[in-house]
UniProtKB/TrEMBL annotation:
This is Small EDRK-rich factor-like N-terminal domain-containing protein. Residues 38-75 form the At2g23090-like zinc-binding domain. Residues 1-32 are annotated as: Disordered. PANTHER family: OS07G0114300 PROTEIN, SMALL EDRK-RICH FACTOR-LIKE N-TERMINAL DOMAIN-CONTAINING PROTEIN. InterPro entries: At2g23090-like (IPR039713), At2g23090-like_Znf (IPR039438), SERF-like_N (IPR007513).
Amino acid sequence: MGGGNGQKAKMAREKNLEKQKAAKGSQLETNKKAMSIQCKVCMQTFMCTTTEVKCREHAEAKHPKSDVYACFPHLKK
């Protein structure tokens, strides 16, 4: 006959354990790859999900004499 709930739960635990083993490790490499936006004045990097507002805040705070587009040319459209 078929397996009971206990067997299904055991199989699910084993499957999840295998997934966790594969995912373990450092996120540093992934984080480095996500840092794709860079200020051209000071070369500081930002996450790829950084909004235009955050880029403008950085430019105004760190480089008040420079234009926002000098720091982040990708904002020009």
